[in-house]
Amino acid sequence: MENPLNITSMYSNKQIARIGGFLYLLLILFGVFAEKYVRNSLIVVDNAALTTRNITDNVMLFKMGFVADLLMLVTYFLLPLVLYQLFKKTSRALSWLMVFCVIVAVAIMCSNMLNHYAPLLLLHQNGFENAFNVDQIHSSVLFYMQMHTIGYHIAQLFFGLWLLPLGYLLIRSGQFPIIIGILLMIGCTGYLVGFIIYFLFHGQSSTLTQFVTAPADIGEFSLCLYLLVQGVKGNHSTISQRSTE
């Protein structure tokens, strides 16, 4: 029986790479919209009442952020399955490790999305206004959004870990610029450092985290563009087998 993950018989590596690039682009766009545009514009970390008012006044935007995050997770789940087709002949074991890290991250984030949706229930579900006073509802809304942020940073541990095998596979395959692979591997370390900074030195986390994760951001955006524009080097139907499993 043919492996359901095997799409190399239907598409060339350039086509597979461009599919991966398109998924990567969607992932970035959905993620930036949900995190930077929606939550960053509505959530005020030290003001529960203002946060609640922002969500109440922009319910549709808040819901769009929720949907965008779920679409981001779908593309994030599919991306390593596509990249697996490019790298399985370089190292099947590392390719599966890459897929596994993303599956764990997606599972954490899907569960964490309940924290994003909870404020909608508190503010619009009948009955809560009778069980809680206004201040309690405001505090609960901010609490759930802060829990979402914590869950997001827990998932980032695996966001970082998947970059290590991905970066190594990029280098070993010989079909991508080495600098992108190096940036991704450095980015893995950056995510791990950012994870530690956030949970041990929360007050100083924002600027430092942005700094240490910058190589990952640059590497991932560069890989996205390379996959979309170039695909892979040359016009080969298979990625080079440079390492053994």
TrEMBL record:
The chain crosses the membrane at residues 66-87, 94-114, 150-171, 178-201. It holds the Pfam family DUF4386. Keywords: Membrane, Transmembrane, Transmembrane helix. This is DUF4386 domain-containing protein. It comes from Arenibacter aquaticus.
